[in-house]
Specification:
The chain is built from eight helices and 13 strands. The chain is an alpha/beta fold. The N and C termini lie far apart (37 Å). The protein binds zinc ion (2 copies). One zinc ion binds next to loops.
């Protein structure tokens, strides 16, 4: 049995803003530095795992983000039927990572203890900390807990052969990254452990943060877990689409992360 995985980054949304908003302390050369929004598919020989579930059209409207393509549509383009998916991993509970509550009716959801404790506990009394969370997302997860559809993880956990989750915290208290074996080695899907390449490559933390020290340690952890710096995938960087080969001809915003990045010009 081949226990390597194919990996896809599937863009579904976009948000224009400037670099100063992406680093604590701003940016000396402030200019446009937009965010892309992704979900990721981890496709093994016999099982498929989805990392994060994105947001839907109504959340996009309320939060004034651009929904480029509904998440389910992007998955179908690469042959994944959402209603057949058995496992969803949530990196954390921010609105752009855990919406589309009914898209995966068969799935079990994998989340860290610390993340659910955080987004249902006293920190949510503070609007500053609550801002990236939507009540509907949290309520939906609680309903899934009561339906017996949630697997809790505490720290490092093996979800399948050569597929592990690792709590790093920092950006949100129970943020987890995913480590996956591919043909090119160990890839770390960092999600919001690092929004951009620049955050972890230059050790410049992102300003939405629960613990700056945990965020910086998270960069170290990702480097330890990944086969190289080129095996770390940031959560919101449009450069991911430039660096990795397209999964489908004629589609620029679904890329293969299990294949080597394209040589830079
Ligand atoms: Zn986040
Ligand atoms: Zn995010």
């Amino acid at each position: 049995m081949d226990h390597t995985y194919k990996l896809y980054a599937i863009r579904y949304g976009h948000f224009d803003r400037n670099a100063a908003a992406n680093f604590i302390g701003g940016d000396a050369h402030d200019g446009p530095m937009p965010l892309d929004y992704f979900v990721w598919a981890i496709v093994g020989e016999s099982r498929t795992f989805i990392l994060d579930t994105g947001f839907d059209a109504s959340t996009a409207g309320r939060r004034q983000r651009q929904l480029l393509r509904p998440v389910g549509e992007g998955l179908k383009m690469i042959g994944i039927e959402p209603d057949q998916v058995q496992d969803v991993i949530l990196s954390h509970m921010h609105f752009d990572h855990c919406g589309n509550h009914d898209l995966f009716p068969q799935a079990r959801y994998h989340v860290q203890d610390a993340e659910m404790a955080y987004c249902t506990g006293r920190c949510m009394c503070h609007s500053f900390l609550r801002h990236p969370f939507d009540y509907e997302d949290v309520a939906s997860m609680v309903s899934k807990i009561f339906a017996g559809r949630v697997d809790f993880h505490d720290g490092t956990s093996e979800i399948a052969p050569n597929l592990t989750v690792h709590k790093v915290g920092g950006h949100s208290r129970g943020l987890q990254v995913v480590r996956v074996l591919t043909e090119r080695g160990w890839v770390v899907l960092g999600s919001d452990a690092s929004h951009f390449y620049a955050n972890f490559e230059q050790n410049r933390p992102f300003p939405v943060v629960e613990s700056v020290s945990d965020m910086l340690e998270g960069y170290v952890t990702m480097r330890r877990l990944a086969s190289s710096g080129q095996h770390i995938i940031p959560g919101h960087d449009p450069l991911v689409l430039e660096r990795y080969p397209a999964a489908l001809s004629g589609v620029t915003d679904i890329v293969r992360l299990d294949l080597d990045p394209k040589p830079t010009a």
